[in-house]
Amino acid sequence: MKSMRFIIHIFLFILVLSCQSPLTKYDATGTFETTEVLVSAEANGKILTYSVEEGDYLKQGVCVGLIDTLQLYLKKVQLEASMKSVYEQRPDIKKQVAALKEQIATAERDKQRYVNLFNAGAGNEKQMQDAESQLQVLRNQLTATYSSLSNSDESLTWQGSSLGLQIAQVNDQLNKCYISSPINGIVLTNYAEAGELASIGKPLFKVADMDKIYLRAYITSDQLANVAIGTKATVYADYGNKEKAYPGEVIWISQQSEFTPKTILTKDERANLVYAIKIKVTNDGELKIGMYGGVKWD
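Above: the chain's sequence. Below: its structure in token form.
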């Protein structure tokens, strides 16, 4: 009978110890979180290929899906044909003024000949004046031709540049038809399947960077005096039947106090106003989003 009472007392003692809050050994507690990105469609059309499943690890920039690009491709081909036609219409100014330049050279020789004849007394002044007038006419034609061809060339160049910008816009739209993750991470939620219609802004999947994980905890104003950006800490992850320690560093402290969240307990449970902090932890692959953890300052 005494042995039975002893066993009961031992059991009650263990039960009392187990009921005591483990939070009392931590300076602060909180939950683990990470950077989550909601990837949305950037183009309209049918999803032709899509290889995203929840739990998949995606590498940044690697294509995991494709939205129909046919109409955009046809538009690009049309613009490229128009651009080629525009540049083929650009005048070859050098060739088109070559004949006029040859005529001017001939007129200059004729004028010089009449000048020489006039100076030798074998020619008359009218012939010399006529030669000068003809030379001036040809020079004016050359100037006008240069101006006309330059204006035409400049106009066609601007048209070609405008078409080039439109092609660049189409290329940008084509690139947005390729679905990829903006970060390295694990797919948390998938919202789309191949064969569905996508529209700009429609959510496709949510991805999280699990390599960079943080413990979001809360501290009181008393603790705030001893905590700053860069403060080192030891973070304990709660795995249910065990805990594991990780080195951590404070990377963010809220500038505004808030009421203690119902799911979070600070070292001083009577505190009403607390400050949120983030402690960076290197994930060894075991830390998960939403896990509870505690922190002790080094």
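The CA atoms of residues 228 and 250 lie 7 Å apart.
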